[in-house]
Amino acid sequence: MATKVIVSLPGEHDYSVRIGSGIIAALGCNLREIERFSTIRDVLVITDSDVGPLYLAQVKASLSQAGFKAADIVVPAGENSKSLEIAGEIWSAMAQLGMGRDCVVVALGGGVVGDLAGYVAASYMRGVPVVQVPTTLLAMVDSSVGGKTAVNLPEGKNLVGAFWQPSFVCADTDTLATLPDREWRCGCGEVAKSAVIDSDDFFFWLTNHAHELANRDSETTQEAIARCVVFKADVVARDKTESEGVRECLNYGHTLGHAIESCASFGTFSHGACVAEGMRFAARLAQSVAPEAGRGAVEAFAEAQAELLDALGLESLNHGLSPEELLAAMKHDKKVRSGELRFVLVDDIASWRVETLSDDLVLAALGG
Ligand SMILES: NC(=O)c1ccc[n+]([C@@H]2O[C@H](COP(=O)([O-])OP(=O)(O)OC[C@H]3O[C@@H](n4cnc5c(N)ncnc54)[C@H](O)[C@@H]3O)[C@@H](O)[C@H]2O)c1
Hints:
- The protein has helices spanning 27-32, 52-65, 84-96, 111-123, 137-143, 181-198, 200-214, 218-238, 254-263, 271-289, 295-311, 323-332, 359-366, and strands spanning 3-7, 15-20, 42-48, 69-75, 103-109, 130-134, 148-153, 156-163, 168-172, 341-348, 351-357.
- It is α/β, with parallel strands linked by helices and 368 residues long.
- The strands form three sheets. A seven-stranded mixed beta sheet has the order 1-2-9-6-5-3-4, sandwiched between helices. Strands 7-8 form a two-stranded antiparallel ribbon. The chain has a two-stranded antiparallel ribbon with strand order 10-11.
């Protein structure tokens, strides 16, 4: 049975996120059910060189059965494809194909394809609809929902982008069967982040089902995705453009996580493993700033979180990086404001806040 979550955002069309096994087959019909898509003909499917050979034919068959004329572009798999150069090639191809404002872009792949195709759609002819068909766990639980799209510059990640909500999201859990283990764990890190920030209910459900999720049990996976989508939809509804301070909670674990990724050179450790390490670190920071009286509770939370991460296969990272280089990398993060280090700290499940911390305190928690 597929699950459907409706995302309602102020000033936007509502959109559905469908989650289930084999639902790509119904993608074309689902799109035809969207009123403003009823007369659309041209669709461009953007995918990458790993995902294309696996799922492009299914997606195109479903689209053509519903009367769409589907073209495709396959970009090289990997973060390097999130570039202005590739975006430019796709815009030119769309113009050469004669695509007008009445076309739809379909993003078939992980977060890289989702962010790239989303940005391409947000800018082509000042904006055409995008449909997300996520094929990684990370993209299903996080990046396909919420409308953040971007490409990278040589100067940094995600520096050029737009908020552009999808018109529909189709998360076919069958596609996860071919996902490498490393990418699976990456998604598990984001599921853990969502559970910690969301609620006792989600956290304890995940704690009880962590081994099933780590072992890719299908029912558990579908429920974990649905819970994450409900959580993210709620956060985004309260802070569509990251201007209200609510969406900042999604950065939990990411400040140190990004620093480890960049110091160790991107790709050495998976993003999920780095985020998990960042969550452990943020819990240490929360303990070091907690008042004496409340420290016991913060420690108990840190322990429960560590057990959850271990059970998900996200053990503590032995990255060997020095506190000083990690501190320098964190200060380069684009989310740093006037040189001050800001962290999402969690004292207990669903109890988060953003705090500015001194370099000395951060260095001490890093073991420097
Ligand atoms: N927009 C957002 O809100 C948001 C949130 C989090 C992350 N992101 C972005 O997402 C990107 C990371 O996304 P990702 O982790 O999905 O990585 P990815 O898109 O690079 O996918 C990882 C690898 O798995 C392959 N792959 C994808 N689906 C597969 C499948 N079903 N079977 C086999 N192989 C498959 C891909 O081709 C790629 O080689 C980053 O660029 C990050 O900035 C965006």
